[in-house]
Design goal:
Length: 469
């Protein structure tokens, strides 16, 4: 069965394992081979005249990586550490800090910290830039080199220095590495409402979501008022798991379709009979970190009018990458299709627009922190059918519902305003008693450190990074 991974960040991709066939290669135009003559001319010049001797493997790998990077942000060559990183994202665990990162113009940038990990507890935030690891300047490092510096044996310490917009001085943190287990699903009960947080779409995620639904019902002793499905900062994962998760809440209809270069190359995925929640009301939370496989779930539930989508516009990755095996631990990750929601929408560039935009008011930096989406990436695929309704939907006036300040919310134990708003949306179905209960419970986070600026670190010339640290 094809294995498709949908994932976003600068490291994001949607992958399928398919063989490299002789027929596909035979379609390459014969004339294109003539272009290889120019490549060989450059190759021979480098071999003959570069200031230092160069290994053939270095040149060939660099040429392959450059060729794929010229296509789009998500096509790439996977071998060695890259291959292992991909395995970790979908299957395993590792010793590290719990950070999902990307490279931006040679700088290590935090996509998101995984909840309840060393980085998360220390107060690292999305959009932070890591400038030093153990006092060494990490600008210009490769992704693999940065991964190696931040991962390590559990129990060992590592000091990172971060730059954050709005802070005049760098912030220095000393963290203790832990075994980071990629938990795809966490759940809890708030009042009479079930909250299901899906952090990634790795092996078994669909099954874990079904277990979460059952666990919530068992804890309450009855069906909840509804469910909050939290897909924020979920960069994606396996396509079949995204389909499986959407199927938990749907009992019929299309979930997603993927379409290749050939107009007749269309593959559709449909829901199976039976909604595990019995049709209970749903609120889906999304933000700029909700990407690819997560957007498939949000788009399917939105198009079927099965859920209210709240939060912020999602990442906007609507392309599918296929893993073409070249060897035991070597693959080419190549964009081979685009995916579409049940109504025929492509989320490429535009993402999923929430039915109700809800800002993260509890985050004091939410307005100033840089946000990266698909349409910010170089060479991203264009969506020719993208429609921008902002001019006719936005009257430019501030929404009086969203005027609260972070300090005011914190005093009410509301550390996650978007989740709180989603809970209140569902609590209204239970009347004033449930609304009051959610107001009393709030959405407090486990203790996180308050960051303080560090002493300036002297930059050392030198070379730092990757999906999970």
């Amino acid at each position: 069965m094809p294995r498709v991974l949908l994932q976003a960040t600068a490291t994001v991709a949607a992958l399928a394992l398919i063989p490299v066939t002789t027929g596909a290669l035979a379609q390459v135009e014969t004339d294109s081979y003539r272009e290889l003559d120019q490549f060989m001319d450059v190759y021979n010049l480098v071999k003959a005249k570069y200031v230092d001797p160069v290994d053939n493997k270095v040149l060939v790998k660099g040429a392959i990586e450059g060729m794929l990077a010229a296509l789009d942000p998500h096509s790439s060559y996977e071998d060695g550490a890259d291959y292992e990183n991909l395995r970790i994202q979908t299957e395993g665990n590792y010793g590290g800090l719990g950070l999902s990162i990307t490279m931006e113009d040679g700088i290590v940038k935090v996509i998101t910290p995984q909840k309840d990990t060393p980085a998360w507890r220390a107060g690292v935030k999305s959009g932070d830039y890591i400038t030093h690891v153990d006092g060494k300047f990490v600008y210009g490092l490769t992704r693999d080199e940065a991964v190696a510096q931040m991962r390590g044996k559990p129990g060992t310490k590592v000091t990172i220095t971060i730059a954050r917009k709005g802070y005049d001085k760098p912030i220095q943190l000393t963290l203790t590495r832990e075994i980071i287990t990629l938990k795809p699903v966490n759940w809890e009960v708030k009042g009479e409402i079930g909250v299901i947080n899906i952090t990634t779409f790795s092996d078994g995620t669909g099954r874990y979501v079904r277990e979460a639904v059952a666990g919530i019902k068992k804890q309450l002793g009855h069906d909840p008022l509804g469910y909050v499905i939290d897909l924020r900062d979920n960069g994606g994962g396996l396509l079949n798991e995204a389909v499986s998760v959407a199927d938990v809440f749907l009992d019929h209809g299309e979930i997603v379709s993927q379409r290749g270069r050939d107009k007749l190359d269309i593959q559709r995925y449909a829901a199976t009979p039976g909604d595990a929640t019995g049709g209970a009301p749903l609120v889906v939370l999304v933000n700029a970190g909700t990407a690819s496989a997560s957007e498939i779930v949000a788009g399917a539930l939105q198009d079927h009018h099965r859920a209210i989508v709240q939060g912020e516009r999602s990442f906007g990755k609507g392309s599918v990458q296929s893993l073409l095996p070249l060897g035991p631990k070597t693959d080419v990750r190549l964009t081979t299709a685009r995916y579409f929601t049940p109504s025929g929408r492509s989320v490429q560039e535009g993402g999923i627009d929430p039915d109700l935009p809800v800002p993260q008011l509890s985050d004091a930096d939410y307005k100033s922190r840089p946000v990266v989406r698909e349409d910010d990436l170089r060479r991203h695929l264009l969506n020719t059918a993208k429609v921008d309704n902002k001019l006719i939907e936005d009257d430019g006036k501030p929404d009086p519902r969203f005027a609260a300040k972070p300090d005011e919310l914190k005093a009410k134990k509301i550390d996650d305003y978007q989740l709180y708003y989603a809970l209140q949306t569902l609590a209204r179905l239970g009347g004033p008693t449930q609304v009051a209960m959610i107001a009393k419970l709030g959405t407090p986070n486990p203790a996180r450190a308050e960051l303080t600026p560090a002493a300036p670190v002297k930059a050392e010339p030198g070379p730092g990074a990757a999906p999970n640290q």
